[in-house]
């Protein structure tokens, strides 16, 4: 026997089970199902079939090894890292393309710095600080300002040091005064007269 | 415009080259305060105390300042606490031995540097004692 209501709602039963109907349509279908056992049985069949199919798919999914799939996807997402030389070439290429002026200026500056720094470093590195030194300090000249009332006393010690005293000229008469006095101890002492000219103090 | 740039660049390079050729002699300058009054003597100054004891027995000695100078033929000034200014310059370089000129008014002296040795130059009165300028080669 033909049932016009069932014919009307039959196309909506599957979308109803799948949750694809609007609230109004859903309410109408549920009223129909309450009055029509045949449609209600069909909806029960649809739900049972869905459950079976979902279960079967889950079981199939568990059997699949997804590692290869994951690796394949990640291989496509992460490009292979370029070698260092290639990366440098790429970087320089981009810098010269987009920053040509600053790059040329920097290279010229670096070349000039190297041209200056190399001879400077060679000069500074040659013999310093070990060089420029003798075995003992030797005082070559001593002079005193001509208008000064003091005089120098030079003492060179046996271990290579030297001491320059500046003493009052009145000390000339002191017991340790005197000209060109040499001591027999561990040091030699030499007194100089006040010298108006700088070079007159040569020892 | 280009010619002017070239001249400026050439002069700069010449100046740098001249600077590179000028000898630089490193010298360590210690400013030491010494007084006869009994007190503390810095441990590193005990050898100096013994050397100076032939003329003056100092009972207090301390280092007030230490500077490392790069001497050239142009005098390098060194201010002392007693308002005096010492000037040090390279006098000559012969057989890899530097002769240094040191001017500390009223005295002026030239002496040869020596490895591990020092020149002690009396630098005038200060705060009831004496100042000494101790010149040596840096280690």
Features:
heterodimer, A: 203 residues, alpha+beta, three-stranded antiparallel β-sheet, 4 strands, rod-shaped, disordered C terminus, B: 139 residues, four-stranded antiparallel β-sheet, 2 helices, 19% helix, elongated
Summarize the structure.
The complex is a heterodimer of chains A (203) and B (139). Chain A has 203 residues and is an alpha+beta fold.
Give a verbal description of the structure.
- Chain A is of the alpha+beta class and 203 residues long.
- Chain A has six helices and four strands; from the N terminus they run ααααααββββ.
- In chain A, α5 crosses α6.
- Chain B has one domain.
- In chain B, 19% of the residues lie in helices and 49% in strands.
- The interface between A and B is large, with 45 and 40 residues.
- β3 of chain A pairs parallel with β7 of chain B, so a sheet runs across the interface.
Q: What is the helix/strand order of chain A?
A: HHHHHHEEEE
% residues in beta strands of chain B: over 45%
Number of strands of chain A: 4
Q: How are the strands of the biggest sheet of chain B laid out side by side?
A: 2-1-8-7
**Contiguous helical run count of chain A:** 6
What is the averaged pLDDT score of chain B? Answer: 87
Which regions of chain A have little confidence, pLDDT < 50, spanning 5+ residues? 172-187, 191-203
Structural class category of chain A:
alpha+beta
Which two chains touch over the largest interface? Answer: A-B, 45 and 40 residues
